[in-house]
């Protein structure tokens, strides 16, 4: 399993595959078609996913992954010593191949340090030396939706791509809890609001406008609202909830990702900034309105809606 010009993974007898996940919720959701492609091409292989703690829940109930290995970069895998500890842990598991959906140099270095014989990914971020199944980026890749960025990597590695639809499966416990919470609310529509987003205010619609929108919809339909977000969004959620006491419920910072996904799946609609939870709603099939500011909807918009 050395360098080869053909770079066709399908011709290799891969029994144990490590997939390096991306790090952010939205990016991870956009890799779900690619992860399904890997499973469909290697139905008998043991497939493990290496993921950061805050995105691990996305694949907890996925039939396309056999197990999730948590990369605890802020804990036991902290610093270079922690990276070496993780590489030693992975080395003892004798993976045949690592497919790197994450772009970082570190991902390729870790797979090399772990002694994984086949290391496949895009040749970028100065990591070509550590990849023996390196793939060049197409010049026009930035003009297409990010879902295709990951699928194209796999097709260039000789895999057959299947459905492009996003995939999200909840655990039975989360599914039941989400339904139970929803049943305890009004019989009128329940609408999720997501006022937060990573990388600053340029991606965020003002909080007062979320509140005004909720007030207007409530007046016309009696709808109740659930405000979602990270702990950093608590204050924003509080300001929105103040504009609709009794019918706007602030859950920002109060749920795990798995709980938030279950609740979003049970909303009748979702209003959101360009964010990770926008992609969760798209994958869950929840009707949504996405508000874009500084980012490109063509590249990172809610993919399920763009397929329609």
Brief digest:
The protein has 308 residues and is an alpha/beta fold. It has eleven helices and eleven strands. Helices cover 37% and strands 16% of the residues.
Please tell me about this protein's structure.
With 308 residues, the chain is of the alpha/beta class. The chain has helices at 25-41, 79-91, 105-113, 146-156, 172-183, 207-221, 234-242, 257-265, 276-284, 297-300, 303-307; strands spanning 16-20, 46-51, 67-70, 97-100, 118-122, 133-135, 190-194, 224-227, 248-250, 269-273, 288-291. A 6-stranded parallel beta sheet has the order 3-2-1-4-5-6, covered by helices on one side. It starts with 15 loop residues before the first strand and ends with a helix. The mean pLDDT is 91.
Strand content: 15-25%
Structural class: alpha/beta
Largest sheet: 6 strands, parallel
- Output the strand order for the largest sheet: 3-2-1-4-5-6
What is the β-strand count?
11
Uncertain stretches: none
Question: Helix share of residues?
Answer: 25-40%
Mean pLDDT: 91
Number of helices: 11
Give the SSE order as H and E letters.
EHEEHEHEEHHEHEHEHEHEHH
Gross morphology: elongated
Distance between the termini: 42 Å
Radius of gyration, in Å, reads 21 Å
Structural topology:
Blueprint: E1 16-20, H1 25-41, E2 46-51, E3 67-70, H2 79-91, E4 97-100, H3 105-113, E5 118-122, E6 133-135, H4 146-156, H5 172-183, E7 190-194, H6 207-221, E8 224-227, H7 234-242, E9 248-250, H8 257-265, E10 269-273, H9 276-284, E11 288-291, H10 297-300, H11 303-307
Parallel strand pairs: 1-2, 1-4, 2-3, 4-5, 5-6, 7-8, 7-10, 8-9, 10-11
Helix pairs in contact: 1-4, 1-9, 5-8, 6-7, 8-9
